[in-house]
Amino acid sequence: MLASASPRRSDLLRQLRLFPTEIDPAEIDETPHPRELPGQLAARLARTKAETVAARRPGAFILAADTVVALGRRILPKPETEDEARAYLEALSGRRHRVVGGIAVIAPDGRRAERLVATVVRFRRLDRTEIESYLASGEWRGKAGGYAIQGIAAAFIPFISGSYSNVVGLALAETASLLAGLGYPVPWRMAGS
């Protein structure tokens, strides 16, 4: 069971031939706590999502994740307005930032596994026309940090270090490892068995 309504996470899981039997978004408050660091937030939100869904779905494998975009210690959540998205893009322009992904898995017997994955992303310097065109595309809506690396914003990013799928929304290598470690039958690991 996937504790997320994110279509990107579902698409990523399909790459591994993993098809959640159900999708049950946790719908929790994602507001950072005072002085909470980006990694702490991503881990807490993934864990809380998994626990919330596990409480109402006993006996199921639960996978939850959260993605936090961080510019230093500053967290750039999903922008609510075009002005907020513009401010994010201006802040990211010409700089490196981190995308921190928290992953939490709860097995049917209650065993748990968690992982935190950080990817470094560098934006090239953006001019005003590029920023305004990107905003007009609407692609920034619903995206942490106000951009989607798998879309138009790929043209802004000459460098990443770490997991690309983490930036999209779910670090696949780490997710597969966590699931397999708790006994989930990961299809591609079973080939030939």
Average predicted local confidence, pLDDT: 94
Largest sheet: 5 strands, antiparallel
Q: What percent of residues are in strands?
A: 15-25%
Sequence of secondary-structure elements = HHEEHEEHEHHH
How many structurally independent domains? 1
The number of helices is 7
CATH class: Alpha Beta
**Measured distance between first and last alpha carbons:** 25 Å
What percent of residues adopt helix (DSSP H or I)?
25-40%
Rg on CA atoms, Å: 17 Å
Give the total of beta strands: 5
Explain the layout of strands and helices.
Elements: H1 7-15, H2 38-56, E1 62-71, E2 74-75, H3 82-92, E3 96-106, E4 112-122, H4 128-137, E5 159-161, H5 164-168, H6 172-181, H7 187-190
Explain the overall architecture.
The chain is of the alpha+beta class and 193 residues long. It has a single domain, classed as Maf protein. It contains seven helices and five strands, in the order ααββαββαβααα. It has helices spanning 7-15, 38-56, 82-92, 128-137, 164-168, 172-181, 187-190, and strands at 62-71, 74-75, 96-106, 112-122, 159-161. Strands 2-1-3-4-5 form a five-stranded antiparallel sheet. The radius of gyration is 17 Å and the shape is elongated.
Give the structure's gist in a few sentences.
The protein has helices at about 5-15, 40-55, 80-90, 130-135, 165-170, 170-180, 185-190, and strands spanning about 60-70, 75, 95-105, 110-120, 160. The chain is of the alpha+beta class and about 190 residues long.
